[in-house]
Request: fold
Amino acid sequence: EAQVTQNPRYLITVTGKKLTVTCSQNMNHEYMSWYRQDPGLGLRQIYYSMNVEVTDKGDVPEGYKVSRKEKRNFPLILESPSPNQTSLYFCASSPTGGGYTFGSGTRLTVV
Amino acid sequence: GNSVTQMEGPVTLSEEAFLTINCTYTATGYPSLFWYVQYPGEGLQLLLKATKADDKGSNKGFEATYRKETTSFHLEKGSVQVSDSAVYFCALNRVSGNTPLVFGKGTRLSVIA
Reply:
């Protein structure tokens, strides 16, 4: 089944403790992206990647890192999480010019 | 830059009512336009899309027509059901160059029996 898989689905962590949210797609898509969803703000792009080893900042990149060493994986790294990064995170992938396939989301709480 | 503006919700309708959710966009060139739907507790799913002017996207009884002259892509459904209750997002990207998908802020629809 064609899908984008994110893990974990839920995560509660403490301020400053490094964490990684994984994202993997099995559709051989070139393009991958991370969004955060917050009430009243909709979806905002954090980082995106056009292809392997090509990443770029979205609208809200501060406090986040990404890497794209393989085509299928696009992990999101929070080196030192803070409470303002409490949010619902979505990974998405698409073929060039196509519509996105989204993961099921990761609900992160930083206390 | 590219942007999408959609009507603010929440929208509450009775079952079998007619639905319109307005969406207008600003973009250079000729973007592809999308509607995504997010059901409670789930990720976003592509509902329909249109890639050029006057195209009509349709799916599950929903329709939207790409209107270049008014830069709009309004979502419509003739008769909503309780199961249509969700958040709807209008979005755009360019066919070429694969610029990031830009979303509207979402419109929450609640359909009551």
User: Anything to note?
Assistant: Chain B has a mean pLDDT of 91. Chain B touches chain A at residues 32, 34, 36, 42-46, 49, 89, 93-96, 98, 100-101, 103-106 (CB under 8 Å). DSSP finds no helices and twelve strands in chain B. The CA atoms of residues 3 and 26 of chain B lie 5 Å apart.
